[in-house]
Specification:
about 120 residues, alpha+beta, Methionyl-tRNA Fmet Formyltransferase, Chain A, domain 2, 6-stranded antiparallel β-sheet
Length: about 120
């Protein structure tokens, strides 16, 4: 299970290492989601994503979905004030899909949380 308290680099490495088996996963609204591909945005992008938060960055829990749109994909806040961008995922019992397909099909919006 993905621990959103860890750094973005550590989470990204875990996702790459376990992408095929057993898989790095998290939960969203009780649905188990296997994350298959992600990347860590550069420092400039990280600041851009986090500057969009309307509340203090420190008060937002890790696992918070910072962005969820066609341009950015799914951007999630991690430990150490960093973010990770999810590119490919697989909801439980469904096919593998891109972040954009997941956003459109499941109506994921920024402001929600991954567990």
């Amino acid at each position: 299970m993905i621990d959103w308290e860890q750094s973005a680099e550590r989470i990204n490495n875990k996702i790459r290492a376990f992408s095929s088996r057993p898989g790095a996963y998290c939960f969203w609204k009780g649905l188990r989601i296997k994350v298959l591909k992600s990347k860590v945005p550069d420092e400039f992008k990280r600041k851009e994503y986090l500057s969009g938060l309307e509340v203090n960055e420190k008060s937002v829990n890790n696992g918070y979905i910072v962005k969820a749109d066609k341009n950015s994909g799914i951007v999630v806040k991690c430990g150490e004030g960093k973010v990770i961008s999810i590119e490919l995922l697989k909801p439980q019992g469904k096919r593998t899909m891109t972040a954009m397909d997941f956003i459109n099909g499941y109506r994921l919006i920024a402001g929600e949380n991954f567990e």
